Amino acid sequence: MTGCTKRSRRKSDAQIISIVGAGLVGGLLAIYLARRGYEVDVFESRSDSRVAASDNGRSINLAMSCRGVTALSDAGILPAVEKLMVPMRARAIHDEKGEVKYQAFGRRHDEYINAVKRTDLNELLLEEARKFPSIRWHFDTRLLHLDVSEKEAHFKRPDGSQFTHAYQRVIGADGAGSQVRASLQQQGLVSTSRVFISHGYKEIAISSASSNHLAREHLHLWPRESVVLLGNPNLDNSVTGSLFLPLKGENSVANLDNEPRIKAFFNKTFPDIAPMVPDVAGDFLNHPVGHMSTVKCSPWHHEDQCLLIGDAAHGLIPFFGQGMNCGFEDCRILNEFLDLYHDDWSRVMPAFYLARKPDTDAVSEMSTDNHHEIQTGIRDPRFNFKKQLEQHLMQRYPARYVSKHVLVMFSNMPYATALAHGRLQNTLLDRVCNQTTQLSDVDWLRVDELMREYDESLARLKRMPHGHLETTPAPTSWESA
Ligand SMILES: Cc1cc2nc3c(=O)[nH]c(=O)nc-3n(C[C@H](O)[C@H](O)[C@H](O)COP(=O)(O)OP(=O)(O)OC[C@H]3O[C@@H](n4cnc5c(N)ncnc54)[C@H](O)[C@@H]3O)c2cc1C
């Protein structure tokens, strides 16, 4: 390659891992690997200061749940991250008339998810990682291509110069648009797909002064026909709004292209929120549109030299708030396989892929289902009754009925197992909802019978050693909810 400088391989290369991408997953992974005694080279296309300062229009506020918390705790950095987290105990659903319904996320007051600012979290991860002298940072280096046969990674700097890095082992944590994945695909080593949805999103800031009358410690939702506004709380009591809307057509990114239209749309669609966003048109026009996609890839590795992780391996649409959580869980489980196989990467990479793939496919499916749920279900009386009934079942049968949502958000149960529970639960809920539409009319003797059938189905599920709904067991037992 022209303008390239070549670095010679070092003696102890087997202990050196190169990571492409210093986003959320790359940052955490560097910490895990440094703790194991590896030397780590991290290559990131953004510049050092901009890692903290820029989001490129992506969601700046994320929901962290059990899986993310567990991985951070395992890496020894949870106490530092906790200072950035704002609890969210329930959804506050704002309807067209300005009425608000509340749906708890968990079963108890102490079961909640956490809002955290992406930039603060990313900065903190890098700060924690910087404590390890064995991690070397290479900002302003964009991967152009990975040559697997030569074990060379070709990078470009912002001034146009290029260089080649000879690697022993490389991990692609470079997000949904991964260049590592693209290179593997170009060389015929993986098959991949990336499917964009027809919605995009825009950030809308709701200042702390204006957000005063929004309930604290809640995830706010304004679901409307084809659009939905989500509001995540920040530490300073402001709320970060993410407006999800179609890319084309009526009330779309393409259509809302000037101040009068944007103001009219907000006043009509979100009359209660419009006064809280003083510069709604400015926010809308100045913030870039974010795009969302589902990424699938198989396998996630090439022999024992190259591995994909996080969004690079399995990008999700964000409607279950699991992308980061799942990527952090990847890091924890990869670390457990390294323990199990004594850092023999030739065993770790395939085992990690085989264990995680069914789970990431499952969470991808659940994220898509949740997209439909948020778009349409949340305004459907039957859907709301099902949710109410489900909460009731969790109170009535606390040891037996734990909803799929609770299993995903408040346990480390493999996603595929949580999905299988969810399917059985859906059948049960449908059978009750076909008989009645309100809690006071439920025939509880009949529900007792259905619960017995449900228990038997769950027991059968647990006995299926390699059933397609069960995952290849990870080397850790999952924490029960
Ligand atoms: C609107 C929205 C809301 C979301 N909400 C949630 C939520 O509530 N909860 C949740 O768990 N998840 C959420 N997610 C998902 C979450 O943002 C991602 O899953 C997470 O950021 C993935 O982390 P990552 O490190 O794999 O990828 P990224 O965060 O995308 O990081 C990739 C890094 O690689 C760098 N990079 C890219 N290409 C190159 C290259 N060629 N060379 C060098 N460096 C490169 C990038 O600059 C970046 O720093 C949301 C996503 C969106 C879009």
3D architecture notes:
The chain is an alpha/beta fold and 481 residues long. It has 3 domains: 13-85 and 111-195 and 293-360, FAD/NAD(P)-binding domain, CATH 3.50.50; 196-291; 380-463, no CATH class. It has 15 helices and 19 strands. Helix 1 (24-35) runs parallel beside helix 10, helix 11 (345-375) packs parallel to helix 14 and helix 14 packs antiparallel against helix 15 (444-463). The chain starts with 15 loop residues before the first strand and ends in an 18-residue tail after the last helix. Mean pLDDT is 90; it is low at 1-13 and 466-481. The chain binds flavin-adenine dinucleotide (FAD). Flavin-adenine dinucleotide (FAD) binds at residues 20-26, 43-46, 58-59, 62-63, 142-143, 173-175, 179, 201, 242, 290, 292, 310-312, 318, 321-325, 327. Flavin-adenine dinucleotide is lined by residues 20-26, 43-46, 58-59, 62-63, 142-143, 173-175, 179, 201, 242, 290, 292, 310-312, 318, 321-325, 327.
Question: Which descriptors would you attach to this protein?
Answer:
single chain; 481 residues; alpha/beta; FAD/NAD(P)-binding domain; 3 domains; seven-stranded mixed beta sheet; six-stranded mixed beta sheet; 15 helices; disordered N terminus; disordered C terminus; binds flavin-adenine dinucleotide
- Second-tier CATH architecture of the largest domain: 3-Layer(bba) Sandwich
**Between the first and last Cα atoms, what is the distance in angstroms?**
53 Å
CATH class of the largest domain: Alpha Beta
Can you list the strand order of the major beta sheet? 6-5-14-15-16-13-17
- Report the major sheet: 7 strands, mixed
| Cα radius of gyration in angstroms | 23 Å
Give the ligands present.
flavin-adenine dinucleotide
Measured as a percent range, the helix fraction is 25-40%
Care to count the β-strands? 19
Tally of discrete structural domains = 3
Give the CATH H-level superfamily of the largest domain.
FAD/NAD(P)-binding domain
Give the rounded overall mean pLDDT. 90
What is the molecular shape? globular
CATH topology of the largest domain: FAD/NAD(P)-binding domain
- Oligomeric state: single chain
Structural class given helices, strands, pairing? alpha/beta
How many alpha or pi helices? 15
Spans where pLDDT lies below 50 across 5 or more residues = 1-13, 466-481
Sheet-strand content, in percent, reads 15-25%
